[in-house]
Task: structure prediction
Amino acid sequence: MLEHVLNLGAYLFCIGIFGLITSRNMVRALMCLELVFNAVNINLITFSNSFDTQQSKGEIFAIFIIAIAAAEAAIGLAIVLAIYRNKNSTRIDQFNLLKW
Amino acid sequence: MNIIELSGPLHEIIFFILEVGIILGSLGVVLLTNIVYSAFFLGLVFFCISILYFALNADFVAAAQILIYVGAVNVLIVFAVMLINKPQSKKLFSSWTIGDTITFLVCLSIFFLLVTIILNTSWSSITLITESKKFLNFDFTQNVQRIGYLLLTQFLLPFELLSIVLLVALIGAIVIARRENLMKITEKVQIKKSPKSF
Result:
């Protein structure tokens, strides 16, 4: 039971990393980053349920991660909008303005 | 598992359905070409994870997951997709390059490494150690009461800092994403005013 849910979290993490690296659209990269955050949350809450029923510190950490991920999604999407307004393209691999 | 005391087979069926939902949903987020479909599959993944939290006896986090992730983050992503969307190709799955294959092999190896670590750890010995300690004086049976008590006594500083972080993120997102016409309108007003002064 515990190992089953931990395996599910590991699978979500690896799929999130794969999508983050191979996506050419900026919004899809942010979506895969949210998948990674959710995988970490699953892990934390599973451990809190199995080992920390008295204090449930894992759930509190998961609440903090949910809030920080929401703030980061908002700022990330604002940056994506600003970039799209300037360059009129959403392909990540063609932005090289900051290259040396 | 305090909240849901279902019978054995029903519990297994619910977990199987949730697993299939999460696995197929995450594959749809990563592999589909049409990004609107990806955004809706992401909503499905968030919803399935929330029901998983209910089954793991974390009802406050499950409600927060639905409210924040499905209700705010997913809606924000759908808005961004609608503002940015350029329809590109008509295929369902995009073709893979060499870099995609290398990344797939690396991620597969990371996944197998994690699964090996999980299956080779003796979880039963850790459970015996942690169950013998009792720290909290109040024995809250409700999950929400426990979280509320801990957030306002032991985790007060991160809680207050989190509110400041959310405020800064809100202001920052508005400043970055607003239109720049405001500057040009004030410049035109100044140009009109200056010939009148001659």
